[in-house]
Amino acid sequence: MMTCHTELRDSIVEAVKTNVEGKDVAVACSGGLDSGLVSALAKRYARSVTLYTCGTSNAFDVAMAKDLSEKIGLTWNHVQISKSNICDMISELALAGDTDDAFTISYELQLFSVCMAAKEDIVLSGQGSDEYFMGCAKFVGASDDEYAILVETAKQRLNEISVPCEKKIAKHFGKTLIYPYLEDSVRSRIDDIDILEMKPADMSSRKSVLKDIARDLGYGFLAERVKKSSQYGSGTTDLIRGLAKERGMEYNEFIDSICEDAFKGKSKMIRGSIVTARVDPIVKAKAEDILGRQGMKPSEAINVLYERIIRDGKFL
């Protein structure tokens, strides 16, 4: 077991305390380690803490968050998503977050739902833990070189796509988002740790440093909690897949059709058709690094490739 990093532990506690002391706060809670630790620490300092969980009626996250609320003694609210409201939510999220990216929408529906339902002006999030404490499943089994690339690209997506989108969503609802794990004081302490020290050997050893911190703070039960990615734990992915299938569409195609209607008549970049493809994450990271240095987006590269195929009448 890794030894607890005292200064990092204290910086996380201080990040929560500074932002919530004496205030009424909401927590976007999935019931796992990340949001669970934020919730437990907020209870120490905030005037009131209410947990909000987005999910279908039988979602994994809903059961986990309800159980967590009982264990730490906090009020909990279930923000239910279903066939009857998810299309409207996707449409509003696309406009509020200024995004039509299907992947982004799939995991931001949860935060969107919480901001929509929360009565409190301040919303705490456990966002950033996967990227900075090495909780992503793709980190397991990667070579050291591949691991370093995956970590860097995960952090890049978080900071350049996810967080800006979430802040726009929060502004749409008049909320202030707090990210304890992304505070400068916390990230600077994380940066002092060699990322290879935090590299997970298997699925159960992910976020080992944060688990040790939770134990050291007296929340050992949080370190043992199982977690799924938000889009799966909330049930949103299965729900969207089912609706897409009913309409004879692919997942991305279905979300794109909703966004197309949402942005109709709005000032938005010229939109094109979706290309759905599975790409090796290392190949993707290396290619996009080269494209980025040339000032080119992946969509532009795909367009160039397709134009070349049309021009030459063949792929190679």
TrEMBL record:
<dbReference type="InterPro" id="IPR013321">
    <property type="entry name" value="Arc_rbn_hlx_hlx"/>
</dbReference>
<dbReference type="InterPro" id="IPR001962">
    <property type="entry name" value="Asn_synthase"/>
</dbReference>
<dbReference type="Pfam" id="PF00733">
    <property type="entry name" value="Asn_synthase"/>
</dbReference>
<dbReference type="InterPro" id="IPR050795">
    <property type="entry name" value="Asn_Synthetase"/>
</dbReference>
<keyword id="KW-0067">ATP-binding</keyword>
<dbReference type="InterPro" id="IPR014729">
    <property type="entry name" value="Rossmann-like_a/b/a_fold"/>
</dbReference>
<feature type="domain" description="Asparagine synthetase">
    <location>
        <begin position="7"/>
        <end position="139"/>
    </location>
</feature>
<dbReference type="GO" id="GO:0004066">
    <property type="term" value="F:asparagine synthase (glutamine-hydrolyzing) activity"/>
</dbReference>
<dbReference type="GO" id="GO:0005829">
    <property type="term" value="C:cytosol"/>
</dbReference>
<keyword id="KW-0547">Nucleotide-binding</keyword>
<dbReference type="GO" id="GO:0005524">
    <property type="term" value="F:ATP binding"/>
</dbReference>
<dbReference type="GO" id="GO:0006355">
    <property type="term" value="P:regulation of DNA-templated transcription"/>
</dbReference>
<dbReference type="GO" id="GO:0006529">
    <property type="term" value="P:asparagine biosynthetic process"/>
</dbReference>
<protein>
    <recommendedName>
        <fullName>Asparagine synthetase domain-containing protein</fullName>
    </recommendedName>
</protein>
